Amino acid sequence: MQHSPVKSFMIKVVLWLPVCFAVWYYMRGVIGLPTFFIVDSLMETWLADFIRDIEFKGHLLNVVLQFDPPANLNVPEGQKAELLFGVNSLAYGYSIPLYTALLLATPDEEKAKWIHWIIGFIILVLAQTWGVSFEILMTLLFKLDAAMSAQLGFSSYQKELVALGYQFGYLILPAVTPLVLWIGFHQKFIGELVPGLQSRFKG
Amino acid sequence: MLRFFVIFLVIQAGLFTAELTRPVQQAIVIPFTRSIATLSAWLVQRFDEGVVAYNNVIRDQGSGFAVAIEAGCNGVEATIVLVAAMLAMPAPWKHRLLGMSAGFLAIQVMNLLRIITLFYLGQWNKTAFDWAHLYIWQALIMLDVLIVFLIWLRFLPDTRKTENAA
Q1: Core-most of A23, A98, B107, B151, by most CB within 10 Å?
Q2: What is the model's pLDDT at position A4?
Q3: Exposed, middle or buried by CB within 10 Å (0-12, 13-18, 19+), for B162?
Q4: pLDDT, position B160
């Protein structure tokens, strides 16, 4: 009886997936660090007047805001108001265990697997950074009091771009990036799964 | 391969942006999402009579627990990814249309399973619901897209035979 290569591959992926998710979750304090450092530097550079601090707690990025208090808020004169909200960075990072499971299920040399994983991890961290950064911006612009959001000085056109960037970072990037990376790195293997594919890509 | 990726990303970005516009939301996405909620509730009612659906919400009348089907939960984005991949791949239009139809069905069947399991997981345990909702099902739906795409590729006519015959 001949087994479908696609079926065998997918069974391996599904078997690796829970292992990868478990490792990813228990290592979240380490795996999430690169995203935290990049988001922290980005926000410190661009929104230093509004974001006083970003704390990394496991997988939550707690964003501490400072702003001129609105009229209905009692704050001692000369001081700014502060507000804290959290962003779940894992919601943008499930691509990492998915990509790792795809790599582990693909027959390849050990060295190549590591290289593909490291390159993929860097790109997935950037995708995660995109998602987390846009969620912070989206919260600042659309979830705070209008008077507070206005202090950021974004035009309506820029707000639309932030909304689009947020949706793209939440719905598309974490889902598509691991598949694009896997296809890009494993054309030969996909060619074995799908005979004749290489000639089609050349076409 | 580069050509495939460029076309894929352009089509995907175009379809995704179009999906977010108000006219497309009003005419297609919102009514479609509501129909998914109605269909999910109808399926659940086959074995659980205490479930009702209104707009995009499914509610258990006994516990009061409800889930709202929002953007990202209706399978539209997964369908966009699959459609973009099939359009980016050189293939006869007949195969593309068949692939998109079968792929749409495969994604929606998986998505119905996702909604129903989440509905019951949520009533059982909030942590399990969050895990399944935010991470596990997201990954499984994309695996579904990948499987459909790979199977579809295997059904495409072999261009090598055509080239050799010519």
Answers
A1: A98
A2: 79
A3: exposed
A4: 58
Reading the block at residue A97, the tokens are 């265990």
Angstrom distances, CA of residue B162 to CA of A200, B91, B157, B159, B165 = 11, 13, 8, 5, 5
Quickly list H helices, chain A: 5-26, 28-31, 33-46, 95-105, 110-138, 146-150, 156-167, 173-185, 187-193, 197-202
For position B155, what pLDDT does the model report? 86
User: What number is the average pLDDT over the span B58-78?
Assistant: 87
Decide if pLDDT at B166 tops 50.
no
- CB-hemisphere CA count at 13 Å for A42? 16
Question: Residue B162's pLDDT is what?
Answer: 52
Q: Which two tokens stand for residue A59?
A: 């997988």
How big is the CA angle at B22 (ends B20 and B25), to the nearest 5 degrees? 65
Q: How far apart are CA A130 and CA A124, in angstroms?
A: 10
pTM for the whole structure: 0.89
Q: Model confidence over B70-126: pLDDT tens digits?
A: 877 889 999 999 999 999 998 899 999 999 999 999 999 999 999 999 999 999 999
CA of B134: how far to CAs of A63, B28, B104, in Å? 21, 25, 22
CB A82 within 8 A of CB A29: no
Q: Which residues contact A133 (CB under 8 A, 6 or more apart)?
A: A39, A42, A43, A169
The list of chain A residues with pLDDT below 50 reads 203
Chain B window 26-65: which residues touch A at a Cβ cutoff of 8 Å?
Answer: none
Return the pLDDT at B72: 74
CA-CA distance, A187 to A167, in Å (whole number)? Answer: 30
Alpha-carbon span A43 to A32, nearest angstrom? 16
Contacts A171 to B, Cβ<8 Å: 16, 71-72, 77
Q: Compare CB distances from B138 to A94, A168, A200 and report the shortest one's residue.
A: A94
Residue type, A46: W
Q: Is residue A197 within 8 Å of residue B153, measured between CB atoms?
A: yes
H or E element at residue B77: helix B76-88
Give the pair of three-digit tokens for residue B92.
């006869």
| Tokens standing for residue A91 | 């919601």
Report the C-alpha gap between B143 and A111 in whole angstroms. Answer: 25
ipTM summary value: 0.86
